[in-house]
Amino acid sequence: MASQVPVYLFTGFLEGGKTHIIQESMEDKRFNSGEKTLIIQCEEGVDELDPSRFWGQNVYLELIESESDFTVEKLLSFTEKRRVDRVVIEYNGMWRMDTLYAHLPANWVIYQEMMFADASTFLSYNANMRQLMVDKLTNCEMIVLNRTPADIDKDEIHRVIRGISRRVAITYDYPDGHVEYDEIVDPLPFDLEADVVQIEDADYAIFYRDLSEEMEKYDRKKLRFKGMIARQGNQILVGRHVMTCCADDIAFQPMVCSFPASTTLQTQDWAILTGEIRIEKHKLYRGKGPVLHVTATEFAVKPAQEVATFY
């Protein structure tokens, strides 16, 4: 079996600072002490890499100009003549992340994924290209907002980013060189320590995302919330349609239910369910997932806003 090749992934939009941070990283002997490194650039911006200034010189540059050329075969062709210790990818902000994830060679493993953006244009990009913003932020570990102006609206940027991911770290890089970290307290809109956790209609999207990201903290918690029923054979699910960024990505986000006795609930019925979540194996999850062990059921009318959102 081929040994794993670590991949350092830099995403973001044109002029967001990706090339600059790669140049700085490769000049730093703490990051580049001689490892054989393949740098793959997927766009040509205003700045260009200057390999003559890299600390270690075992660096090879390759360019992929079209998203359709980002294939396993193309990537492997870069390493056919030379063995590399790691790969750095500067990914085109207009390309979908699924293209990258689907076409990495089997032994290439993403070690770090960071997004870079110009702080002064971040909100404009979000307003005009929301789908691409969601696409880049969903799995990244940190977003670095470059060229941060003194009057930046951190509350608004925090709200936008947290509407996509509660895990990504947010960093502000100012023109004078100092760096600040987002430390805005971001509590959940419901009390997880309550005897019965009440999930309001407007909070379902936040609840479901948090449940997906940190399932274990919900284990054995008693919840009460409104959802729509879906039957799959003998199995009953309850959930809501959730919109992450736009109408194109609306999807039903449910969990498995276990009832103590038969129920007359049918697909597309709305109900308020009370029960205990247990994280356990289930065939519909193909592994572990949240199963709601229902203790009480009430028929209900659908919410005023049927599709749950993060805003």
Please, could you describe this protein's structure?
- With 311 residues, the chain is of the alpha/beta class.
- It has seven helices and 14 strands.
- The strands form two sheets. An eight-stranded mixed β-sheet has the order 3-2-4-1-5-6-7-8. A five-stranded mixed beta barrel has the order 10-11-12-14-13.
- Helix 7 links the parallel strand 9 and strand 10.
- The radius of gyration is 23 Å and the shape is elongated.
List the helices and strands and how they pair.
Blueprint: E1 5-12, H1 18-27, E2 37-41, E3 59-63, H2 72-78, E4 86-90, H3 97-103, E5 108-118, H4 122-128, H5 130-137, E6 142-146, H6 154-162, E7 169-173, E8 179-181, E9 197-198, H7 204-213, E10 222-232, E11 235-242, E12 251-258, E13 270-282, E14 287-299
Helix pairs in contact: 4-5
Topology pattern, helix = H, strand = E = EHEEHEHEHHEHEEEHEEEEE
**Subunit arrangement of the protein:** single chain
The total strand number stands at 14
Structural class: alpha/beta
* Low-confidence segments: none
Question: Sheet with the most strands?
Answer: 8 strands, mixed
Strand order of the largest sheet: 3-2-4-1-5-6-7-8
Dominant shape: elongated
Fraction of residues in β-strands = 25-35%
**Between the first and last Cα atoms, what is the distance in angstroms?**
47 Å
Mean pLDDT figure: 93
If helices are DSSP runs of H or I spanning 4 or more residues, what is the number of helices? 7
